[in-house]
Design goal:
There is one protein chain. This protein is of the alpha+beta class and 335 residues long. Helix 5 (123-140) crosses helix 6, helix 6 crosses helix 8 (173-189) and helix 9 crosses helix 10 (233-242). Mean pLDDT is 87; it is low at 1-42. It has 12 helices and 5 strands. 41% of the residues lie in helices and 7% in strands. The protein is elongated, with a radius of gyration of 21 Å. A 5-stranded antiparallel beta sheet has the order 4-3-2-1-5.
């Protein structure tokens, strides 16, 4: 949604780019049918910039506290609970970055940084406490059949007794949904260990975006009649993926978590590409476009410009997300 530096593409380059995009729109379906892979492995390192730099080392350390958790899973929980906001407070009186209610904190809060106190508002205490609490829950249900991590998450939501009673994740819609959300979000915080599966919806998103080339930029624009059919950067990406049945959050830094993160040399058409002045913190992302191949994206760059092709290899390039339907559904409505 924010302003980027202007970059003017010559008319001839745009014409060539349009032809190139049309080939890619077809080709991406072929790629989707032929590539295999995905994020896997029990031990997951954090994706670049996925966790704000101030908390990355803490999450990486405490995310390895027991076999039932990992740094990416712990990051997903923190993001789901507070969006990494150490001052977050819910109407139910949940407090801090890990959203402990006072009674649970009194029992399970620990002095994570060894400074002699247990402060729910201090991430150096709250993040270790969240990891410790997860591991405690895992120990309660260690003899229950099934996936230890899913049983732990179900215990977090429904209580260990319910998991023991049902011999695994209980048949509660809320609990099953919670387990799916966190395990799906986990993939957007994990550094991929193999090539990420291509998105089957990518071609449709590109097709929509290319039809908007030349449309004037509008800050806050979502393409509605009231907006005169104009967009800002994340309004365009949101609308493009909406046409293929994927609902993305409204702002760019939330769209970052809609799927796993391919490396620069693994980009495919349809990937969202992001830009920031702080390359260590995804919450600081300020611009997004749709990658079309050849080092170019379609984006709505700034006030006074039009939707156009721009290069992605600039100093503020942050990274990319391969949007998935489950990844988008897992995102919290507010963070």
């Amino acid at each position: 949604m924010t302003v980027r530096k202007a970059w003017i593409v010559a008319g001839a380059a745009v014409a060539v780019g349009l032809s190139f995009v049309m080939l890619l729109v077809v080709g991406v379906y072929i790629v989707a049918g032929n590539l295999a892979g995905g994020v896997g492995g029990a031990s997951k390192a954090l994706a670049k910039g996925a966790v704000p730099a101030a908390y990355r080392d803490i999450v990486q350390k405490w995310g390895n506290l027991c076999p039932a958790i990992n740094p990416a899973l712990l990051a997903a929980q923190l993001y789901q609970e507070s969006g990494f906001n150490p001052k977050a407070k819910s109407p139910a009186a949940a407090q801090g970055i890990a959203q402990f209610i006072p009674g649970t904190w009194a029992t399970h809060g620990i002095d994570g940084d060894g400074d002699g106190d247990r402060d729910v508002w201090d991430p150096k205490d709250a993040i270790p406490s969240a990891a410790s609490y997860d591991c405690k829950l895992a120990s309660y249900v260690k003899d229950v059949p099934g996936d230890a991590t899913k049983n732990m998450l179900a215990s977090y939501n429904a209580g260990a007794y319910a998991v023991i009673k049902y011999g695994g994740v209980p048949p509660y819609k809320e609990t099953q949904n919670y387990v799916k959300i966190i395990t799906t979000l986990e993939e957007s915080f994990a550094a991929p260990v193999s090539r990420v599966d291509p998105s089957k919806q990518a071609a449709g998103a590109i097709y929509y975006a290319q039809k908007k080339l030349g449309t004037p930029y509008l800050w806050g624009g979502e393409g509605s009649a009231a907006d005169g059919g104009r967009f800002d950067c994340s309004g365009l990406t949101q609308a493009a993926y909406d046409t293929v049945g994927i609902t993305l959050p409204r702002v760019a830094n939330d769209q970052w978590n809609a799927g796993p993160h391919p490396d620069r040399d693994e980009l495919l058409p349809g990937d969202l590409v992001f830009f920031s002045d702080d390359l260590g913190n995804s919450r600081a992302i300020r611009h997004v476009g749709i990658y079309v191949g050849g080092g170019y994206m379609i984006d709505a760059p700034r006030t006074g410009a039009v939707i156009r092709f721009d290069p992605i290899d600039t100093p503020d390039y942050f990274g990319a997300t391969r949007v998935t339907e489950d990844g988008a559904k897992a995102l919290p409505t507010t963070v």
